[in-house]
Amino acid sequence: MTTPRTALVTGANRGIGLATAQALDRAGWRVLLAARDRDAARAAAAETGPRAVGVALDVTLPESVAAARAAAGPVDALVSNAGVLLDDGYDPLTVPVDLVRATLDVNVLGAWRVCQAFVPDMVRAGWGRVVLLSSGTGTFTHGLFTGAPGYSLSKTAVNGLTTLLAARTRGTGVLVNAVNPGRTRTRMMPDARGTVRDAAGDVVAALGLPDNGPTGVLFRSGRIVGW
C-alpha cells in the first residue's frame, strides 16, 4: 500500500487554506492544517478528515515555526497561504508604514520563514512541491494596486521569493510556483465572486505538476501568466 504524501497548509483554519486542505484530503494526501491558534487548527483538521492533523504555527514567530517543524517532521509539499490585508483603502502617500511592516512580516517574511524550515527536507528527499499564494495586485503585467499598497507590494515580494526559491532548488526534484487565485470570496474579500473551492483547485493542480513541470512561474486558472 502506497504511503500518502504529506502537505502542510498555512492559514488553513478558514478560506482558501481550509478549502485547499480539504481538497488535498479528498485527493488522498495526509494534510497538516496550520493556524496561529492551536484549537482553531485542530477544529479545522477535524472538519477536514480523520487523517488530517492540526498544527499551531504563527508565521511571524521564528520559535513557532521551529516548533511546528519539530512537531510535523518533513513534509512533501507546502502551501504558503497565510496572509493579511491590513491597508485596504489607503494609498502609497497615506498608508501608515507600521501597517506595511506588519503586512510584510506575515505575507513575505512569514512565507520565507516557513519555506526555510520545510523546503530543505524536500531537497534532501529529492522531491517536493511548494505553492505560494500570490495576487494579481502584485504583478507588473497587471499593475500594482494603489488602493492597498502594502498588500500589493507584499505580493510583488512573494513573487520575487518564488523565483528565488525556484532558482535555488532547480534540478533537485522540488518545484516552487506561485498561484494567483483571483478575487475569491473570503473574510478578506467578502464581496468577491470567486469561490474558495475554485481557488483550492488551482493550488492542488500546481501541487500535482509532473516532475518535469515548470518551476518559478505564476499560475492563474491553470495557465502560466506574466509576473
Give an overview in words.
The protein is globular, with a radius of gyration of 16 Å. The chain is an alpha/beta fold and 227 residues long. The longest helix has 29 residues, at 97-125. It is built from six helices and eight strands.
Give the structure's gist in a few sentences:
This protein has 227 residues and is of the alpha/beta class. It is 42% helix and 16% strand.
Order of helices and strands: EHEHEHEHEHEHEE
Give the low-pLDDT segments.
Answer: none
Helix share bin: 40-55%
> What is the percentage of strand-forming residues?
15-25%
End-to-end Cα distance, whole Å, is 41 Å
Any idea what the radius of gyration is?
16 Å
Shape call: globular
Question: Using DSSP, what is the number of strands?
Answer: 8
Average pLDDT, rounded to a whole number, is 95
By helix and strand content, what is the structural category? alpha/beta
Largest sheet: 8 strands, mixed
Widest sheet, order of strands: 3-2-1-4-5-6-7-8
- Our count of helices gives 6
